[in-house]
Design goal:
This protein is α/β, with parallel strands linked by helices and 610 residues long. It has four domains: 3-36 and 566-609, no CATH class; 44-127 and 136-231, Rossmann fold; 240-366 and 383-441, no CATH class; 453-515. The chain contains 18 helices and 21 strands. It has helices at residues 3-20, 32-35, 80-85, 87-94, 116-119, 135-143, 162-169, 171-186, 197-212, 215-225, 240-247, 258-266, 329-333, 336-341, 346-360, 443-446, 530-543, 592-595; strands at 43-47, 55-57, 75-77, 109-111, 151-153, 190-195, 226-232, 304-307, 324-327, 378-385, 389-397, 406-414, 420-422, 456-463, 473-479, 498-504, 512-519, 568-569, 574-575, 581-583, 596-598. It has a nine-stranded mixed sheet. The protein starts with a helix and ends in a 12-residue tail after the last strand. The structure holds 2-acetamido-2-deoxy-beta-D-glucopyranose (5 copies). Residues 1-27 form the signal peptide.
Amino acid sequence: MNKSKSFSQAWWCIILLLGLGLESASAAGVDPKLWRSGDQKFSGVIIPGFASTRLRSWSLLDCPFSPLDFNPLDPVWLDLRKVISVPQCWMKCMMLDPYNQTDHPECKSRPDSGVSAITEMDPGYFTGPLSSVWKEWVSWCVEFGVDAESIVAAPYDWRLAGPVLEERDLYFHRLRLTFETLRKLRGGPSLVFAHSLGNNVFRYFLEWLKQEVPPKLYTTWIDDHIFTYHALGAPFLGAPDALKGVLSGVTFGLPISEGTARIMLGTFSSGLWMLPFSDNKPLSQRNTTKTEGLVAPDWPVNVLEVDMPTSALAALANYTVPIQRFYSAQKISDGTSFKEMGEFDPQAKLAFYQLKKYYLDNPLFNPLTPWERPPIKNVFCMYGINLKTEVGYQLSPSGKPYPDNWIIKDVIYETDGGSLQTRSGLDVDGKGGVASGDSTVPYHSLSWCKRWLGPRVNITRAPQTAHEGSDIQEVFDVEHEHGGDLVYNGSRDSRIKYITYYEDAVGLAGKKTAVWEFDKIDHRNLVRSPVLLRELLLENVHNSHPQAVRSFVSKARRVPLRDEDCYWDYSKAKCGLLDYCEYRYVFGDVHLGQSCRLKASTDKDILQYF
Ligand SMILES: *[C@@H]1O[C@H](CO)[C@@H](O)[C@H](O)[C@H]1NC(C)=O
Ligand SMILES: *[C@@H]1O[C@H](CO)[C@@H](O)[C@H](O)[C@H]1NC(C)=O
Ligand SMILES: *[C@@H]1O[C@H](CO)[C@@H](O)[C@H](O)[C@H]1NC(C)=O
Ligand SMILES: *[C@@H]1O[C@H](CO)[C@@H](O)[C@H](O)[C@H]1NC(C)=O
Ligand SMILES: *[C@@H]1O[C@H](CO)[C@@H](O)[C@H](O)[C@H]1NC(C)=O
């Protein structure tokens, strides 16, 4: 038995007990009194992203020439075996009617419920990144003793746009009941963890709620039910990737053709929820005083350039324009591009129909508009940065029939540090930023959240690994115009991965806003990153601890918490962080780093972080 490991597990257990409200604390080497977090009884609500909820069939479908059929409750998303063996059948169960979002006449699918609906997409068959976005997260919770009742998933049918989610499944109604039930059960508000598209869904919920409760009670309801909103990898201004899905098809690594993927995705009204946008108003109508609302700036490049096919020239004769068309994010989200391309591409025409019906003409609100900070007590945005991320595409006609009528002639990326690059190597006409995105969502969109910070912001940059504070940069009370961008250009050592924290505890009375940027952590892996989990736990214990004196948890040091935080220092030929780690070989270790383990005597006092 590995003594130190069980010690560190007990330690984590305590953090989670306090953060998430368990009572029994049997602490090994930790004084439970120091760890008490008052009487707050939190719960966690997880809202997963696109394609991250399991769908099951609710039909009997006989697949010809195959022993594989779809029976009620069979997994549809995702059963890789059926995607490969009976693709036609599988498509029937996945696709919706593109115009009214009803099921295929022969097969219908519905989202699964419970935490397992978001953790096991295709147990045993598909172990790629799609299958287990939340699995690690949940296994940490279980491993460290979080009560089953305090973690609730809010899975949903990710094929549907907001209005259909409510109309067909009463999803937002149920989500409201989930928060209300949790409050009754645990006696406290919830912590929301939304990933990717889950953030758009959560925003929709807040807008929907405004219509449901009397205006005077709206903020009261929020204060009573939501303590902290964690926006994980949120596409605040959308992502060009969503446009690629509409025009060319995204296969998710499944063994289907891009054309097939395009047809399937085209039937999902949710496909447009993450379209890139800058601002919903034409320039002439924008209120530039910035007091009326936040105005989203434009993207680094035109998101789309299209060579119009010659056969379409006749149709386009009325537009006195050259053959090559350029579309800014604004022209994509207001429908201009789909309308023009729809003259000769049925999928673009369909996209225009859905865009109008579910987004632009949505009586609740247009989701393709910049989002103001929600009136939640604590708002934390966290995302990966400085990975190569697609920001624009050049399309050309392929000469083939629909759905393969386009080829992607060139792709524009933003790269580490924000410079622009093309796949072809040709020059780009655009304006690079200060950083790049998380490989799926561009920096421009992720970092929108910085505009929610108040007029003064504290900025800290610290290494991601355990550290003693020697390599930490801090600047206090940086002036920041409301609605304006905020850039920290402190120094970087290219060998070190940092976390840059932007924090404001004074801009809004009684509220806190923070933005955490993690170098080189990818969109999907964010949720299972041990660095993110460590920061989340420390911050959440701190945020509710009676002895916390600071607004945010201290960044001054991070001692190793788990064996995984110890590493082999090749330059010194011994374990790093020798105050906390030691070399202790255990049978089965395959490399040196694994044998560096946490010392049993490691200081586990939470107060060192306050
Ligand atoms: C949805 O559209 C399909 C095909 O156009 C039609 O058969 C069906 O009746 C429609 N359903 C509703 C509820 O409008
Ligand atoms: C812009 O917003 C300000 C403050 O809300 C308002 O006084 C002004 O009339 C607005 N201007 C336009 C053109 O809407
Ligand atoms: C193009 O022009 C023709 C004749 O001038 C007109 O009948 C037609 O409606 C126009 N089409 C569009 C899309 O404006
Ligand atoms: C930091 O960035 C700001 C805003 O982009 C710029 O004005 C300033 O000159 C930069 N400072 C340094 C030292 O590069
Ligand atoms: C920045 O940190 C200082 C010292 O901890 C604190 O007094 C101040 O309120 C912080 N500023 C903001 C904007 O949170």
